[in-house]
Amino acid sequence: MSWIFPVKAEKGHWNEVEKAGLWFRERLSVPAITLEEAKLILLAPFETGTITARDKREKPDTILAVQGGFRQRNLSSRSHEDKTSFLLAHKNERFFIVDPGHCCDPLNALHSSGRTDSHNTWSFQAEPDQEGGEGKVILQQQATEISHHSQKYSNRNRMVQQVGQLHVIRVDSADAYGDPIMKAERTWIAFMPHVLFIVDRVESRTPVKVQSHFLLNNRDNRLKVNVAAANRLVFRRNEAALKFILLDARSGEQDNPYRLRRDRCCKHDCGQPPTNHEGQDMAGDAPIFRYETEHYFPSHTMIYAIAMDEEPLIRGWHLNVLEDGSCFVEPPGKAGGFALQLDKEEWLLHNRGSGETYRIAANHVEKLQAPPVTPSDRTD
């Protein structure tokens, strides 16, 4: 490589690459610009698959990143089963992490870290076979074919839209699973910077159980977990905290009970450090919280609510289901709140503080006007 880069390697391949990078940086670098000057939009989809949402450009309080729809990438190396996975950070603390990273080549964790059940997405359990054996576990399929035309294994990026402080992202990853999964849709409804609803809708040609995986960041052993109930979790990291509540799990009009299971995975902070570099073989802890539906059905809907704030204030947030069936998130001091109502393909989000109402349809969001409504008495 010396004929390309006027540098001399001292200790192998990685040193050569690093020196080449420094050579390029010194000769091709340009003055940095601010995020304002770059006119970075707050809700941005990229063809590589990432969709990012933040409450402000400079020093955001909340960042949501989704592995959403993308054009087929012409490679298969190192790809993860991470379609519809997401990252959520608040007050500079990463809580939900999109995946564990590649860890390090020598670790056995490298192989398990790419699996579906090591990401914030779903796997599915098919019904037992006729001999009574355990049903097949349906995972995302690895992309193994390189094609300029194939869209196989990609998400269906259905909606990415911002209206004021409201960010809505909807992605369907059914193609990543194949038959019998016909819909594997997740919708993130974020009213920045404190409130996030997650609505999962699954449809299958044959009955399945849904296994929902949520991967948390405890790489530095700073994560504190409080399991108030099976559906009510509180996570704290340093000065930030969030409440994570499974508000509803149903199949059609019928409730579908669920079980909470806990597992662990490895989490690397910096992807994969080169050999003999700081961080190699130092993957940290990543707790996994799994919700599994109790019964097999061809249709499933799960609704989660998240409230984020500074650690001393998190106790003042209340998340519950109101008498009219809407999912309600109330801030400290009962100062307004947000109520989400689901009605098939058209949903309504009410901002009880401002009186604004947003209609979330199949492929667009619009703001309506409605008078403030006093919420029903909360139950928690």
The portion of residues assigned to helices is under 10%
What global shape is seen?
globular
Looking at the structure, the CATH topology is Beta-galactosidase, Chain A, domain 5
Mean pLDDT comes to: 81
C-alpha-based Rg, rounded: 22 Å
**Which class in CATH terms?**
Mainly Beta
The major β-sheet equals: 13 strands, antiparallel
Number of helices: 4
Q: Outline of this structure?
A:
This protein is mostly beta strands. It has four helices and 24 strands.
Structure notes:
- Helix content is 7%, strand content 44%.
- 38% of the residues are buried.
- The strands form three sheets. Strands 6, 7, 8, 9, 10, 11, 12, 13, 14, 15, 16, 17 and 18 form a 13-stranded antiparallel beta sheet that branches. Strands 19-20-21-22-23-24 form a six-stranded antiparallel beta sheet, with no helix packed on it.
- The protein has a single domain (43-369), classed as Distorted Sandwich (Beta-galactosidase, Chain A, domain 5).
- Strand 13 and strand 14 (240-251) form a beta hairpin.
- With 380 residues, it is mainly beta.
